[in-house]
Amino acid sequence: MNDVAYQNAYLLMTPGPLSTTEGVRRAMLRDWCTWDDDYKEITQDIRSRLIQLGKCTPDNYTAVLLQGSGTYVVEAVLTTVLDKQGKLLILENGAYGQRMATIAETAQIPYDICRFGELNPVDPQLVAARLDADPSITHVAFVHCETTTGMVNPLQEIIQVIKQRERYAIVDAMSSFGGMQISIEGLNIDYLISSANKCIQGVPGFGFVIANKDALDQCKGRARSHSLDLYDQWRVMEDHDGKWRFTSPTHVVHAFHQALLELQAEGGIPARESRYMENQKRLVKGMTAAGFSALLPAAQQSPIITSFHYPSGDFSFDKFYESLKSRGYVIYPGKLTEQATFRIGTIGDIHPDDIDAFVRVVSELNWLKC
């Protein structure tokens, strides 16, 4: 079993923050000056590597890093890219799509929301019908991997519908980028959003946007926030060789750079996706053998996180959680509003042998008394 569980007291089987490697943690032991050229070079190398990971050409796409959690970056995009004549359509099938609606409501961005329910993927044909019925919609935003359930939405089909109707596409790929292959330029995505502490396996502290340069270049003066002005953040990084507008999380940035190097050493996104998929496959097999059932059918399931039904009406998640934690594993509570579930992540520095050890512990627990 991977010894990270012992080094850190427990293995984080969550959708992020997640268990990191010793190399990533060691990268945070050095202090950095935000103005120093060496540090700015790290920022520039990160930006370049993100463009490559997204299968983009630097002539057409750029990467912008922004302090804060993933939600900060979602808010930066939504409050920067729509002008006063713009209207946003949000495709929602979970808590994180609903969070976009909360951001739009708070920022007074004109928006509409197309709800599909927590247990249904986004239907591209319904999206097409909504766009055809409302020509005032200029931008469409949705979550690729909705970690409310673990569902993966049909990215290519949704983007095709959006771009055929000449709307801007905003993709929250918080829990998928780096762990699932996405050709950003090939799909013609305008803005893809993710975070340092997800599938690239860094630590929390900043997020990033991979943006179409032509689309972002039109956003000058649109931002509804000073700190979250994505356009200004981009221009400062472009014009000052990787400088951040405000104080950046230097230790986190260096850890993320190390995580990118480790992703490359692993074999890139294809190899990492393969590992995550094997993790998830073994998890479902082992949990099923232990008496649990997965919430979603395999065709809708991402390799990132899996929801499981409570096995009985008197099942106590809290007791189950504490029993697992005392044995070196931390899992996630459910986020569904209508069904009793809990979630188990299969990303981070977790390997198939770790999953095998985890399901053995689950099978040995007297969970019926939990």
From TrEMBL:
Cofactor requirement: pyridoxal 5'-phosphate
Residue ranges of domain Aminotransferase class V in the record: 58-314
Keyword Transferase: yes
UniProt modified residues of type N6-(pyridoxal phosphate)lysine: 198
Molecular function via GO: 2-aminoethylphosphonate-pyruvate transaminase activity
Pfam families found in the cross-reference section: Aminotran_5
Known EC number: 2.6.1.37
Keywords: Aminotransferase, Pyridoxal phosphate, Pyruvate, Transferase
Catalysis: reaction(s): (2-aminoethyl)phosphonate + pyruvate = phosphonoacetaldehyde + L-alanine
Gene3D superfamilies: Aspartate Aminotransferase, domain 1 (3.90.1150.10), Type I PLP-dependent aspartate aminotransferase-like (Major domain) (3.40.640.10)
Superkingdom classification of source: Bacteria
SUPFAM superfamilies (UniProt xref): PLP-dependent transferases
NCBIfam families in the cross-refs: PhnW-AepZ (TIGR03301), PRK13479.1 (NF010006), transamin_PhnW (TIGR02326)
Function: Involved in phosphonate degradation.
Subunit structure: Homodimer.
HAMAP family: PhnW_aminotrans_5
Family membership noted in the UniProt record: Belongs to the class-V pyridoxal-phosphate-dependent aminotransferase family. PhnW subfamily.
Protein name from the UniProt record: 2-aminoethylphosphonate--pyruvate transaminase
